[in-house]
Write a structure and sequence with these properties.
The complex is a heterodimer of chains A (233) and B (493).
Chain A lengths: L1 E10 L2 E11 L4 E5 L6 H8 L7 E6 L2 E2 L10 E4 L11 H11 L4 H8 L3 H4 L15 H14 L4 E5 L7 H18 L2 E5 L3 H7 L2 E6 L2 E7 L4 H11 L2
Helix pairs in contact in A: 2-5
Chain B lengths: L1 H17 L4 H36 L4 H23 L7 H5 L5 H13 L2 H19 L4 H24 L4 H19 L6 H13 L5 H20 L29 H14 L1 H16 L11 H20 L10 H6 L4 H22 L8 H29 L20 H7 L1 H16 L2 H17 L1 H24 L4
Helix pairs in contact in B: 2-3, 2-6, 3-7, 3-8, 3-9, 5-10, 6-7, 7-9, 7-10, 11-12, 11-15, 12-13, 13-15, 13-16, 13-18, 15-16, 15-20, 16-19, 16-20, 18-19
The chains are: A alpha/beta (233), B mainly alpha (493).
Chain lengths: 233, 493
């Protein structure tokens, strides 16, 4: 799905990301962890062609993202609040995002049904604009916006942050379900080691822009990750 | 204590300017604006001379009482113009609230900053030379001083009232109606307001103590808006947050005929309806319809002004809205860039919007026929030119503007409320000169009529080439994409 080759991003003298090789096969739930400034959002932004790579390239389904816009048809992403349109209601936002992916309105309405639990009655039918929702509810809108249209690739930056504990558990269930039943590829970053190991089948650790660990998730992974970050103290 | 805080707040503002997106271009703008200041200083002090000696020599009237009489119009007009032009000073309040600045000094700073506005200073350019002429012509010294003090106080009163009543569209409407009403009554010699306003504004000249009245008025208006903002300096006050309720939820089904472009058109219409800043752009477009009236006077009876008027009157919305494409979408530009949309569709929606705005303006401006057929012809020619050429130019310059617009300005009390300011007017100038040039080619080889036709023909040509031009604009947008995304990351600059 994603192939990264000799990718680097520099700001002036400072290298913020340097990845020689990274392949993410289709259907994988890929987890990215690392401290602030490790380069997680930079990596996602490069994959989404929101920033220009200094060297190297990202291929999404064999399309070089900085050369061709074709990857957009099969990719959905929610990175931060700049992926939401504040003056729309959540419904209007879903109709917009879904509509751009050629979904009819009633199809979108039906597709929203399974997410009722996740919204917990705080998002749909509220007669509120997204800008007036709480941070947590905004996040729910953004996450569902990426899942709704069934794109084969979903990128979520810190989806667990700002969510209340119950919703975090719901989100974990939701992501596990989606990953196992639909065969979608997920790229997820998080600061929460427990959540990310629960959801992802592969974990990559970034440190100062470099990949320092890359492993399949096993029962030992959480312990190992905790030890790793302990050593950073 | 006070001055120290002022210094600190000033320091923050300074930093926010120099660390803002596109500082270099901003600096160039500042320099350009410096020239504009010089220009205005020149024009307005010239106006002071004309006002004095023109009234004295051509009409045989005493200039001071005559000017005093007409000041009432000036004041009402100022309220109207301020509403559009005057930008509220920006103080980023939220981070300051929890720091050891007293709330009072934050508000004092905001209000003090509002005094140093383009508008107030331009007035000085007129009244100070006018005062010197009066003194030179041996008017009573203390009388002139107290007259100037009164005028200054009146100006500052409208300044603070404007700050205070800024969010009220009604005030604008009332002021506009009063202005037109008074002018109409005087024009048809039914009622002459200047008979009443003259003694009022002359009173401080005859008896300097009367100056205390406007000075008190000014102090009260300061006090009033100070208290108003002090109370509103909480994050949950109305000034800080937009209304929560969805008031205008419509499906806009009639747009579905536009196919995929309709998704963007729907958003753009919601953008305009639900965000004050975007609404202002529409109001500006409407106001420009009447802008040409100023130039219907005989002294402006030159083809150049007719061409200008034609472009401005038909293109008000095109300029006021179009110049902020794609900045209107700055809050969610990354979303737009990752969705399944080619740039072309996105741009086409904006293009449709400004074109429809122009198409609506042309029949609305048909009342210019009453002044002359030529004026309306200029508007039609200007309209065609706007659709064919300027609609593209505006979109193109948008690729380089890159000023993020914060639609959900929750953090600002003295928010950056006006989407229209002097700088943006400056950016429109290049869009105006070319048609004048084209007009003169036509006028030189044949006639004025030919000039207007030529403007229209160029417009039609631009329209015919729109697909080609669009591909080119698309390329520019793509090249600028990373820069634009980077600039939009910095909000509230």
């Amino acid at each position: 799905m994603i192939n990264i080759n000799l990718l680097s991003k520099k700001y002036g003298e400072q290298t913020v990301l340097e990845i020689d090789l990274l392949n993410i096969p289709s259907g994988q739930t890929f987890g990215l962890v690392g401290n602030n400034g490790a380069g997680k959002t930079t990596l996602f932004s490069l994959i989404l062609d929101l920033i220009e790579p200094t060297t190297g390239l990202v291929k999404n389904n064999d399309i070089i993202v900085s050369k061709d816009e074709g990857w957009k048809t099969h990719t959905s992403a929610f990175v931060d609040e700049q992926f939401l349109i504040g003056y729309l209601t959540p419904e209007e936002y879903f109709y917009f995002v879904g509509g751009l992916r050629n979904m009819k309105k009633d199809v979108i309405t039906a597709a929203l049904e399974p997410y009722k639990d996740f919204f917990h009655g705080e998002v749909l039918g509220q007669k509120k604009y997204i800008r007036d929702l709480s941070k947590g509810n905004q996040k729910k809108v953004g996450i569902v916006g990426t899942l709704l249209s069934n794109t084969p690739l979903v990128i979520l930056d810190e989806p667990f942050a700002n969510l209340d504990p119950t919703t975090q558990i719901r989100l974990k269930k939701l992501l596990n379900q989606e990953a196992s039943s639909t065969g979608k590829t997920f790229l997820i970053s998080s600061h929460d080691l427990q959540h990310i190991t629960d959801v992802c089948d592969r974990i990559v650790v970034l440190n100062k822009g470099k990949i320092v660990r890359d492993e399949k998730t096993s029962s030992k992974t959480l312990k190992e990750l905790e030890t790793f970050f302990q050593e950073q103290l | 204590m006070h001055s120290n805080m002022f210094k600190k707040i000033f320091y923050l503002q300074w930093k926010s300017f120099f660390r803002a997106a596109g500082v270099a271009s901003k600096l160039a703008q500042k320099i350009l604006i410096g020239f504009v200041w010089a220009y205005f200083a020149f024009v307005f002090s010239g106006l002071a001379f004309i006002a004095f000696f023109g009234i004295q020599n051509d009409f045989g009237l005493d200039p001071l009482p005559t000017v005093s009489g007409f000041l009432i119009y000036a004041f009402v007009l100022w309220v109207v113009i301020r509403y559009f032009i005057q930008k509220m000073p920006i103080v980023h309040v939220q981070p300051l609230l929890t720091l050891p600045f007293s709330k009072k000094s934050i508000v004092h700073f905001g209000l003090a900053k509002s005094v140093i506005s383009f508008f107030n200073i331009v007035n000085l350019f007129f009244f100070i030379p006018f005062g010197f002429i009066l003194l030179n012509e041996e008017y009573n010294f203390w009388g002139v001083i107290s007259w100037l003090v009164s005028i200054g106080s009146f100006i500052l009163t409208t300044n603070f009232l404007n700050v205070l009543l800024n969010s009220q569209d009604k005030l604008l409407l009332i002021a506009a109606v009063v202005l037109l009403g008074l002018f109409g009554l005087q024009y048809y010699e039914i009622f002459d307001i200047t008979d009443f306003s003259e003694p009022i504004f002359m009173a401080p000249y005859h008896q300097p103590l009367w100056a205390l009245v406007p000075v008190t008025l000014m102090l009260f208006s300061y006090r009033w808006s100070f208290k108003h903002f002090l109370k509103k300096l909480y994050l949950d006050s109305n000034e800080m947050r937009p209304k929560n309720e969805v008031q205008r939820a419509t499906e806009l089904r009639w747009l579905d005929g536009f196919g995929r472009t309709s998704f963007f058109l729907k958003n753009d219409i919601r953008l305009i309806v639900r965000n004050k800043r975007a609404r202002m752009a529409v109001w500006m477009g409407f106001a420009f319809l009447f802008y040409g009236l100023i130039f219907m006077m005989d002294i402006y009876d030159y083809p150049v002004t007719k061409v200008f008027v034609g472009i401005f009157v038909s293109g008000g919305f095109l300029f006021s809205f179009g110049q902020f494409v794609p900045s209107w979408d700055s809050g969610y530009y990354p979303l737009m860039m990752t969705q399944n949309v080619p740039y072309k569709e996105y741009l086409r929606s904006k293009w449709w919007l400004v074109v429809v705005g122009t198409l609506v303006s042309i029949p609305l401006a048909s009342f210019y026929i009453f002044f002359s057929w030529e004026s309306y012809l200029a508007i039609i020619a200007g309209g065609i030119y706007n659709i064919g050429i300027n609609a593209h130019v505006v979109l193109l310059s948008g690729a380089y503007t890159r000023t993020p617009i914060d639609l959900n300005s929750m953090q600002q009390a003295f928010g950056d409320k006006k989407s229209f300011n002097l700088k943006t007017v400056l950016l429109s100038i290049p869009k105006l000169f070319l048609p004048v040039f084209i007009f003169y080619i036509g006028a030189l080889i044949h006639s004025k009529l030919m000039g207007y036709i030529l403007i229209g023909v160029v417009g039609v040509l631009g329209f015919a080439l729109r697909n080609l031009v669009f591909s080119w604009i698309e390329k520019v947008y793509q090249e600028e994409k990373y820069q634009t995304l980077g600039s939009y990351k910095q909000k509230n600059t």
